[in-house]
Specification:
The chain is of the alpha/beta class. The protein has a single domain, classed as 3-Layer(aba) Sandwich (Rossmann fold), CATH 3.40.50.150. The chain has eleven helices and seven strands. Helix 1 packs across helix 5.
Length: about 290
């Protein structure tokens, strides 16, 4: 690739990051959702209902500090991670700390959970929430670092598990994200990711939509491409589980984002014809 083309691509990628960063800064400051409003993803303040719909239990949700759950999930990665006491977990795109706090209780006082987010406002919110989490649980086993998931501020081979919830689709360089995941995992370390993926290409108008990008849809790629990127990064034991029911539930919630996107779909098509919630598990080989 020529230097000119490389520079152009990086400028495009940085523009996309900027759009996402601004959108999620707005969410952090307004206490909002993937819609960029002061409401939840269901448009009615029902962030807890969204979490229940994608697999979180009441026991997981009750101890959370106020404001940690902003209705930004598209699955429950901690449920598929096989977490053990004492493990070190890294959460990509940790937002207000929702999954970090849930996982922190599961790995216990001898474990540790690191959240990475590229939005300063989200990091500030998460660190504030961590104070409340410690008071509620007595646990002091979480930390939040500012950084991009394409360039993780984490040492090589230093974590047991990487989780992420509806975030990797936002990256303009997903292959690099998967390479970073492989880099930071210990040999034998595991990946547990819930994300949005495409069953078929989106109409061009949706692909260009900023609101669809911030809401995760426009950044999603085909399931098969996701598979190729993960395997290319050197991860093994890959398993993919599609959960289209989540997309249907979001549409039924009459969310502003989904209403806007639905208008651009062909007649008689629904969102889940194009988009699915995808659970991804894999591991890093024990061989060096």
């Amino acid at each position: 690739m020529s230097k000119k083309l490389s520079t152009k691509r990086e400028n495009i990628n940085e523009s996309k990051r900027g759009n996402v960063r601004r959108g999620y800064a707005d969410i952090a400051m307004k206490g909002g959702s993937c819609c960029g409003t002061a409401q939840s993803c269901c448009g009615s303040g029902n962030a807890k209902g969204v979490a229940r719909a994608v697999g979180y239990s009441e026991a997981e949700l009750v101890p959370l500090p106020e404001g940690a759950n902003m209705g930004l999930s598209c699955g429950n990665p901690s449920a598929i991670a096989g977490l053990k006491r004492g493990e070190i977990v890294l959460d990509l795109g940790s937002g207000g700390g929702f999954d970090v706090f849930i996982v922190a209780r599961k790995v216990g006082a001898k474990g540790r959970v690191i959240g990475v987010d590229m939005t300063p406002e989200m990091i500030a919110k998460a660190r504030k929430n961590a104070v409340g989490f410690q008071k509620r649980t007595g646990l002091d086993n979480v930390e939040f670092r500012l950084g991009e998931i394409e360039h993780l501020p984490v040492a090589d081979a230093s974590v047991d598990i990487v989780i992420s919830n509806c975030v990797i689709n936002l990256s303009p360089d997903k292959q690099q994200v998967w390479r970073e995941i492989a880099r930071v995992l210990k040999p034998g370390g595991r990946v547990a990711v819930s994300d949005l993926a495409l069953l078929r290409p989106l109409p061009a108008a949706i692909q260009k939509s900023v609101i669809a990008l911030v809401g995760c849809i426009a950044g999603a790629v085909l399931v098969e491409k996701t598979k190729r990127m993960i395997l290319s990064a050197g991860l093994v034991g890959l398993k993919l589980q599609s959960n289209p029911d989540y997309i249907d539930s979001m549409t039924e919630c009459n969310d502003r984002l989904y209403r806007a996107v639905l208008k651009q779909l062909p007649r008689k098509r629904k969102m889940s014809d194009y988009v699915t919630s995808l659970d991804v598990t894999a591991r890093k080989s024990c061989k060096r």
